[in-house]
Amino acid sequence: MNRERVHILFFPFMAQGHMIPILDMAKLFARRGAKSTLLTTLINAKILEKPIEAFKDQNPDLEIGIKILNFPCVELGLPEGCENRDFINSYQKSDSGDLFLKFLFSTKYMKQQLESFIETTKPSALVADMFFPWATESAEKFGVPRLVFHGTSSFALCCSYNMRIHKPHKKVASSSTPFVIHGLPGDIVITEDQANVADEETPFGKFWVEVRESETSSFGVLVNSFYDMESAYADFYRSFVAKSCWHIGPLSLSNREFAEKAGRGKKANIDEQECLKWLDSKTPGSVVYLSFGSGTGLPNKQLLEIAFGLEGSGQNFIWVVSKNENQGENEEWLPKGFEERTIGKGLIIRGWAPQVLILDHKSIGGFVTHCGWNSTMEGIAAGLPMVTWPMGAEQFYNEKLLTKVLRIGVNVGATELVKKGKLVSREEVEKAVREVIIGEEAEERRIRAKKLGEMAKTVVEEGGSSYNDVGKFMEELNGQN
Ligand code: UDP
In this predicted structure, what is the pLDDT of residue 295? Predict the structure, then answer.
């Protein structure tokens, strides 16, 4: 049969946590013979350019490119250059989430440009971020299938579906009263504070309803996860929520070469070779890696607790302190003499770390994570047990998956969203860090995590379930065209 080449447009929300996995996906499909085009604004295109160039250098025959969309921040009432969610903290020192909302709603400005690009290029499919619910209509206008990318697990998607349908949080005494998420396999217990349910009367809540509607009305959903890891939830999701869905992860495993792994997201604030050399000098499985994603900025008081907790634990560590946190010349977030006392034992990366390179190193024995889904999948793919420290978004659901379903996580003790201001104490940090590395339970957790990591690597190879789902998805697109 003579088929036209599949051409997929990828339209990521402008934030590292969304652009990184969508670029991984664009590379994955290019490797499988598709033409991949990423749509984004100028500043974000600059962020993506380098990793795309690195990929093209390695794979000159594969087709991947960027199309730039106009996003006039000032005209839209945003600060100049405010083209990425991760910049918002630097514009918004004392404000609430208003700037984020404005940014989120402003993205609709790109609708017309998206439509004219679809009309002229006639792609096989549009993979658009869940934050662009309006993109379904844009694609439909031209008979192009729209796929949703949520950037999270089937497990979390099922949790939020059941919360929406059964509203168990409305039937308990308070927002901190635990309840079982009704209708979901596995008796998952959570509180309203943790579930982070948007009030449907607020602007964000209304937007969220649109997101959910586009999830069911779109052609299907692509999930950065693999079937065997969460089969009960993948089946549930397929049966009750999305029309179709394909589990094609872990997407981070699309990065094969050193340069690809090292250049993921931003330029690292540490020499990658130096970092690996430091890890080489440590015993296998002895180092804890702490990172809380691309956007989270913890207050100084919390960073101090982490520092004391790490020191108290006596374990080796690499601690990433993001730009949002590492502010002010005096570094008040660091106890006096901390780095001198932990020399040889610990490494602080101020800014951006080459996370997947670090996680893949044999000296890493545990990952303290905020349970952002990319980090969670990267930890799983690296076969690591984790200390779970959810802070916002759907991260408490991800924590439940790690601690209760997969049983590869130790809960640090976070009970509510970080914005509520409750600190995790140094004692809790110390205990969780020791627990993930030392003892019989740690060993059992490590064995389970290692098995899962091996599975993750197998499913993306030829004949594996994620590999096959990519194939099935492309077949389906061919059938559409
Ligand atoms: N990341 C990284 N270096 C850092 C911080 C983050 O490479 O110093 C990457 C990480 O590997 C992941 C993404 O940024 O791919 C963060 O996504 P996640 O879903 O974990 O969290 P978010 O930033 O969306 O909260």
Answer: 74
Q: Flag whether 259 is in a domain.
A: no
Same domain? For 238 and 282 the reply is no
Mean pLDDT of all residues in the chain? 94
Write the single-letter amino acid at 56. Answer: K
Q: Are residues 145 and 171 in the same domain?
A: yes
Q: How many CB atoms lie within 10 A of CB 470?
A: 21
Residue 59 in this model has a pLDDT that exceeds 50: yes
* 1 occurs within a structural domain: no
Quick one: tokens of 198?
A: 């948007």
Q: How far apart are CA 289 and CA 387, in angstroms?
A: 10
pLDDT digits (tens, 9 = 90+) for 318-329: 999 998 777 777
- Within-domain flag for 246: yes
Q: Is the CB of 346 under 6 A from ligand 1?
A: no
Inform me whether the pLDDT recorded for 45 exceeds 80: yes
Q: How far apart are CA 189 and CA 181, in angstroms?
A: 6
**Residue 95: band (very low, low, confident or very high) from pLDDT cuts 50, 70, 90:** very low
- State both tokens at 239: 């049966």
329 and 413 part of one domain: yes
Domain, as residue range, for 200: 7-254+461-480
Whether 448 and 324 share a structural domain: yes
Q: Are residues 421 and 414 in contact, defined by beta-carbon separation less than 8 angstroms?
A: no
Q: Tell me, yes or no, whether 421 and 469 share the same domain.
A: no
Residue 188's nearest CA partner among 456, 433, 394 is 394
Q: What is the rounded distance in angstroms from the CA atom of residue 379 to the CA atom of residue 382?
A: 5
Give the residue, by CA position, lying nearest to ligand 1 atom 13: 17
Do 183 and 243 share a structural domain? yes
Phi, psi of 72 (to 5 degrees): -80, 90
For residues 278 and 424, membership in a common domain is answered with yes
Q: Is 481 helix (H, G, I), strand (E, B) or coil?
A: coil
Residue 320 domain flag: yes
Ligand 1 lined by 249 (C-beta under 6 Å)? no
Q: Please state the domain count of the chain.
A: 2
Q: Which two tokens stand for residue 279?
A: 């890890």
Using the mean position of ligand 1's atoms as its centre, give its distance from the Cα of residue 18 in Å. 9
Which numbered atom of ligand 1 lies nearest the CA of 355? 7
Strand bridging mode 316-321 / 364-369: unpaired
pLDDT of residue 96: 53
Task: Ligand 1, residue 322: give the atom nearest the CA.
Answer: 8
Q: Which atom of ligand 1 is nearest to the CA of 86?
A: 23
Q: Are 56 and 50 in contact (CB under 8 A)?
A: no
**Helix, strand or coil for residue 302?**
helix
DSSP at 425: P
Q: What is the CATH number of the domain that holds 360?
A: 3.40.50.2000
Q: Are residues 298 and 392 in the same domain?
A: yes
Contact call for residues 198 and 186 (beta carbons, < 8 A): no
Per DSSP, helices labelled H in 131-271 are 135-141, 154-166, 192-195, 203-217, 231-240, 258-262
